[in-house]
Amino acid sequence: MWRVSRTNYTRYGVIALFVIAIAAMPLVTDSRYYLTIGNFIGIYAIVAMGLALLIGYAGQVSMAQAAFFGIGAYTSAVLTTKLGFNPWLALVLGPLLAASIAGIIGIPLLKLEGHVLAVATLALSIVIYTLFVQLWPITGGYDGIGEIPRLAIGGFVFKSDFSYYYLIWAFVLIIFVLSSNIINSRVGRALRSIHRFFGGSETAAESLGVSPTKYKVQVFMLSAAWASIAGSLYAHWITFINPEPFGIFISILMLIIVTIGGMGSLWGAIIGSCVIIISGELFRELVPRLIPGASGEMEMIAYGLILILILLFMPRGLVSAPALFKGWAAKITGRARRPETAS
Amino acid sequence: MTVQNTITTHGKGEAMPSGSHILEVKEAYKAFGGLLAVNKVSFDINPGEIVAVIGPNGSGKTTLFNLIGGFLPLSRGEIWFEGRNLKGRAPHRIASLGIARTFQLLQLFTNMSIVENVMVGRHLRSKAGMLDTAFRLPHTRAEERNIFEAAMSKLAMVGLRKEEAFNPPLSLPYGKQKLLEIARALATEPKLLLMDEPAGGISTHEIEELAQLIYLIRDSGITVLLVEHRMELAMGVADRVIVLNFGEKIAEGTPAEVQTNEQVIAAYLGEEF
Lengths: 343, 273
Prior knowledge:
The structure holds two protein chains of two kinds. By secondary structure, chain A is mainly α. Chain A has 14 helices and two strands.
């Protein structure tokens, strides 16, 4: 966080390694199962990056990220299946709609102190979910919308999970770069300056001409736009949607992802998304084997356990692990060395 | 008797305050419940002046600053800046008119480097929005470079070393943290700089340097209004001194005039000038 316009080669190195690892994964295994998991991690990571910016830079919590995710998915589904829009156009219109809704509820609310946004977005989340169910002439109700067209570039149609894997992770990379550009800029500094829990000072920021409300609203709108893009990608990948994945539980899951990854960190959003999805799958596999007859949503236990452990031992999330380990290592080696120097 | 340094107004109507003052505080009241923190305080500041507001602890100095900056609403009265009534304007709007400030209890951004703190001060002097910065277009990059260079020059102006620019602000000793706040406020290129106890907690030697910096700021065309508890700075540097006690203005005049004022001596009984 301390650097400004200093080239950081370690940072680029880590990014390059990460890109190579992500790109190589489908070449190592051709299991559809792993590709599906990879695609879900990418989609959730996009939503989580928006939420990480909102929590980490504006100090606000949103409970409506799954609703914005759904707005993207439904905008894409409705516009392409019912009105014959080009899927790429729908993918652009979704974020505009989601950001507008975020702006409309954000402008009056973010002038107020405290966690009003959390409460209001909880309500918004329920309203939007209900609309997905009840506006059945448009949304198809519980039956949802099927036969959503695939995304295509020129003659190339993204059909397989394999091709969607690369498409989704290309979007993860784009969103990551755009978000980190914002953070390391005038707007990012304005956002950090108003963040009272992470060392900002709203009073000082205002005295320098920064409008806290303006930037809180903007980052909320951005988080809605990112979630909506993820929703569009989801709709065109699965080609069928119903209201189920856009309920409040997924919004809570996004909060868990950001919390365990590290609030305010884009890496944290990606890491958190990996950990949550993989551990959820592991638990679903393992628990019924260990406890015969156990079924249902065993991944919930995993999420709960991970969240508690992270909050206890790494309150700044998994991204703080390297620094934490360094500290521990220094302690251990320090203890080990002291007797030697004494002798 | 109150020492009044009366400044002739230019005979304009009551409704429109005269344009010769940069700041006009007119019968400002601020009540917190039953406590009158600022009680019918009036004064004017001329462009290019250094004015000190002094008074014992709890005399309403910081409250007065918060009223000018828009951080607290006036209970009654008016504050005009360059012919504009500040009533109802949010602090960031007042900042955009050209009023910057420093804080008695430091309000540095500890989640940024030293130079980034000053770069936030360039906010009003730059434009890039969220989309510009997301796509980092050439004009945005150029602006970012200008922000950085302007910030570095403000650091140099207050005497902070450029080798330290990328360190966290809390790595600086206290006196330099105060200078950093001044650099950050100066980065907004204000017309009026409000300094809340700039000499609080710093050494006598540093006060000497601070006085030189205040002259430098004034000479660069910025009007300075400072609140000060420590007399050596206020009396040494100010062209004019306003004395508050229990929220009321009890005296106003040159440092020499104020020091011989009986009410002021009574208010500061036991303290040496």
